[in-house]
Amino acid sequence: MACTKFLLLLFVWLLDQQLGSCSTDPHDVYALRSLSGEWKNGPSSWRHSDDPCGDNWDGVNCSNSRITELKLFNMGIKGTLSNAIGDLTELQRIDFSNNRYLNGQLPPSIGNLKKLKDLILIGCKFSGTIPDELGNLTQLQTLSLNANHFTGRIPASLGRLADLVWLDLANNQLTGSIPTSATEGSGLDQLVRARHFHLNKNQLSGPIPQSLFSSSMNVIHILLDSNNLSGVIPESIGLLQKLEVLRLDRNSLTGPVPPSINNLTGLKVLNLANNKLRGMIPNMTGMHALYNLDLSNNSFDPSEAPSWFSYVLRNLTTLAIEAGELHGEVPETLFSFPNLQEVKLSGNSFSGALNMGTNISKQLKVVNFQNNLLTSVMVSSNYNDRLILVGNPVCSNMHINQTEYCRVPGQDVAFKLSDNVTCSNPYEAKSIFRSPYFSYLNDSIYTPQLRERISNKLGVAQREFSINNYSFDSDEYLQVHMNFCPSGSSSRCFTSKEILMKLDLNSKIDKLPDVFGPFYFMMFDYQCQERGSKTLIIGLVISFSVASLAVVCIASYAIRKKKQAERAINKSNPFASWGSNGEDVGAAPNQQSVRFFSFNELRKCTKNFSNSQVIGTGGYGKVYKGFLPDGQIVAIKRLQKDSLQGGLEFKTEIESLSRVHHKNLIQLCGFCYEKEERILVYEYISNGTLSENLSASKSKLLDWKRRIQIALDSATGLAYLHEHANPPLIHRDIKSTNILLDDNWNAKVADFGLSKFVKDVETGNASSFVKGTWGYLDPEYFRTNQLTAKSDVFSFGVVMLELVTARSPMKAGGHIVGAVEKAVNRYDREFYGLEHVMDKVLVEEGNLIGFKQFVDLALVCTQMSAEERPAMSEVATEIGMIMKNLD
After folding, report:
1. 670: β partners
2. pTM listed for this prediction
3. Residue 593 — very low, low, confident or very high, per pLDDT cuts 50/70/90?
4. Cβ density class 249-278: b for 16+ within 10 Å, e for less
5. Start-to-end CA span in the chain (Å)
6. Which residue, 668, 683, 698, sits at the end of a domain?
7. Model confidence pLDDT, tens digit, residues 379-394
8. Taking residues 216-235, what's their average pLDDT?
9. Are 255 and 280 in contact (CB under 8 A)?
């Protein structure tokens, strides 16, 4: 007690000394205190003094006692941004990016910051309208509000930002038309210095204004993809002589492509896909700088291959004109472009012989002529990469039919790279490249460029970061996952100050190679907890020469530190006691950096495991809804003490899910193993299981398109599991109760308690006991005890039939596969003879595009012999084609 009083008096004395010599303007101190008062957490250094400038508060930079910079990205801030932000009138830079619990409206008082040059709020949860007052920030150069929840119109007042260079409002829910001065007195056409217009992934409507573009503009990137824009492409687009990237895809644009497009001789990327454009395919003659061209899925007039296929586009890496009404022969010279990597011409009517010639680009990796009319093929021995001819008459040739050319292609998911930089507490980030110059990532070309540029421009040594994997998403954005490691010991944590100074990634958004196009960074929550040092206090105690009291305090401190060390050891090796109780199975779980939760933490966030928090039960035990201190909602599965299977399931879930990371697989947030407790903590998925949603009371919420998307999501997750996870896994218990649906009805495969690593199955190290759920169980696996990935395919085929029928697999003693096979009538054009066994919700909906193809695929998946079933990646591709026809 005496020690505590002494330290308290000492702290008060030190605080008085600080206040007497504060070097920060009092108004700024008050404003910061008001800001942080709206937050439930924030930088720890802000709690130790009242002098932000003098004591170097994390994320705060000053000049002449005034705060000029607030750089607090990815700090876990939870709360709102108060009007007090407008009182920091000397601010030049604000970066609150990736604080995903920072929400509410953007306060209008932000318009008072007349000296502000950079406003970066990427990846937060701001909502409401973008305030008109932003138009008062006349010195603003960077405005990044992307990946939030802003609604309403784009303020016309942004046209007053004469110095703006970077405008990014993408990935919000903005509506209405694009404002211009011609109709609103002010508008985006006035931003003549801006080089980046990123308005993609919103709900903007109306035509692209003719007055939006002028020859005085300096814009190099225009991203308007994934909106609801209509009307014609304005002729004025041809005035933008500096334009390098133009994405207008995934809208409802009509009419012909204007001839002025040929004026854009410096254009590197042109994507007009998935619109309603008419007339002739545009003439690309003269556009020698083009790398990536996509004109797919429009309504162009039927034509032969245009002449520019053969000789114009010498820099081209990607040519995509799928469903482009092209016919006739394929010009041989197309494949000789020296940089060509991918040709996508599926869904056309090319006929005759496909002759790729002998002068094939050494970079060419993918040639897709699926669903054309080709009758023969001649491929040089120089080409040994992927050629897709499925759906062509040539595949009826017995010599071609059995080749890879005529097999349904697997879907590219995520690809691991061979970087081996590791540390215990990496800082994870994902870079989203929204219009790269390529659509096939050639590791030997692009990865070294990316590594070198990150190292040089971001000031991070190559030995301190790794590029782990990449994938192209459904929007054709390239997502690259990276880990950054702290310098020095591979086991230490980044400090907050190191993160804010060294990993300021979004301030370098124009510093990477041009071929990667416009991009931004999203950071993952950093879980490593810093430990504060008490050295300063001990030193002060000693300096006051209170020897006897100091000895007591130091002794107390030592005891406390010893206990902390013991707890830290237990935390770093939570399975130190594994096997001591005789109930644990095999060796301790081999987990990959999954968070350890104490039992007390989980008890608190479930209200002492209250029944009011129970959201599910099973043979393992109960599942509770919990709220972590940072606001994250989680699902907490607690093993029952008398469960006979829980120990093995607990171990398998940790070993499996700690190794796989995919948007269609449930995420394991952590675990608890203490006090005889075995608890697993998952991300919370709000809409429950697929089985629940196929029940009579809920199935009306699942229309045909939503069911196809659920099937595609699940198949994509399983394909990743089988082919791209490291190491690959067989799930072994695929069923509708193990497919979860989130707020947006995206599907995630869950429950990995029975999964097996493929290598263990192939080497005979896995148990031979048959596991799974009756009705979904592969009959060949049940008969022979031989588990393969095709066992998951059978189970998934049953789930597909559940999506069609909304029936459980076993009903009145009969199996769903037999019931569907018996009912199929291939002469029934509408419901394939299944009207009496399928879900009535689908019967009432009618016009089910791709229904027969979906049912046939499900029946192929449920063939008795594993050899006759497709691979999971093939299933995902087939479902993806059905989904594409629904859009």
Report:
1. 595, 681
2. 0.60
3. low
4. bbbebbeebbeebbbbeebbbbbbbbbebe
5. 71
6. 683
7. 887 788 889 999 999 9
8. 96
9. no
- If one compares 533 and 438, the residue with the highest pLDDT of the two is 438
Structure tokens at 743: 């707020």
Averaged over 810-833, what is the pLDDT?
84
Residues 394-430 pLDDT 10s: 998 877 877 888 887 755 544 555 555 678 788 888 8
HSE (CB half, 13 Å, CA atoms) of 229?
28
Domain that holds residue 642: 595-683
DSSP 8-state class, residue 606: T
Residues 748 and 802 in one domain: yes
The pLDDT score that the predictor gives to residue 7 is 43
Tokens representing 111?
């318009």
SS3 334: helix
Any domain includes 220: no
- Are 720 and 867 in a shared domain? yes
My answer on whether 622 and 640 are in the same domain is: yes
**Phi-psi region for residue 286, left (φ > 0), alpha (ψ -120 to 50) or beta?**
left
Give the active site residues.
733
Q: How many CA atoms lie within 13 A of 367 on its CB side?
A: 25
Q: Does the pLDDT value for residue 502 go beyond 80?
A: no
What is the CB neighbour count within 10 angstroms for residue 813? 5
Q: Is residue 701 a part of any domain in this protein?
A: yes
Q: What are phi and psi of 861, to 5 degrees?
A: -65, -25
Kindly report the backbone phi and psi dihedral angles of residue 714, in degrees, each rounded to the nearest multiple of 5, phi listed first. Answer: -65, -45
Q: Under DSSP, is residue 61 helix (H, G, I), strand (E, B) or coil?
A: strand
One-letter amino acid of 806: A
How many whole angstroms separate alpha carbon 480 and alpha carbon 519?
Answer: 11
- Indicate if 752 and 806 belong to the same structural domain: yes
Distance CA 748, CA 767 (A): 27
Residue 818, classified by CB atoms within 10 Å of its CB into exposed (0-12), middle (13-18) or buried (19+), is: exposed
CATH of the domain at 750: 1.10.510.10
Beta bridge partners of 250: none
Q: Which of 247, 185, 237, 231 is nearest to 215 (CA)?
A: 237
Long-range CB contact pairs, 259-265, < 8 A, 24+: 259/283, 260/235, 260/236, 261/233, 261/237, 261/287, 262/238, 262/286, 262/287, 263/238, 263/239, 264/237, 264/238, 264/240, 265/289
| Opening angle at CA 420, ends 586 and 475, nearest 5 | 100
Q: Which residues of 627-660 are buried (b: 16+ CB within 10 A; e: fewer)?
A: ebeeebebbbbbbeeebeebbebbbbbbbbbbbb
Of 627-636, 716-725, 846-855, 862-871, the least confident: 627-636
* Token pair for 69: 């910079």
